[in-house]
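Quick illustration, no need to memorize.
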Amino acid sequence: MSEQFPDRIWGSRTNLLSRVASPFAATKLGSLVIRKLTPLDRRLLERTSGKYTVLGPIGAPVILLTTVGRKSGEPRTSPLLYVHDGDTLYVIGSNFGQEKHPAWTGNLLANAAAEVTIAGQRLPVTATLVTDETRQGEIFARFEETTRAYTAYRNRTTRDLRIFALTR
């Protein structure tokens, strides 16, 4: 068993802001707003080493995932919601329900070595695509517990949403 990942969630998933944010995020307008906030969130997460996020007040668990661009060979960093499972973090390539997979998923398929920034730490990880349908369903249900927006994202697209397990 590998070492446990730190956990850093601030805010609350049960406060009024959180209860309003989740249904809003499930709308197309909400997805657009969140996509527009992504660069700001990336900068805040980078400056605070993953301690604070724009989505923090609503209790959203966010990490920075840095992959190697499969075409450029350059580092590519994305803020992502995650599901924490002790020695494994799960991330999902929802891309807000858009038709194309997010680029970071293709990067991980090409090179499984990556880095996460979480709770003030930068940690090397290895990504594994979750292919077992039962396990995918269990993990997806945990993402839905975080925000029902994932149900909307899945329903907006015909593609399968890639789920990756990140281990140290």
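Residues 97 and 153 are 4 Å apart (CA to CA).
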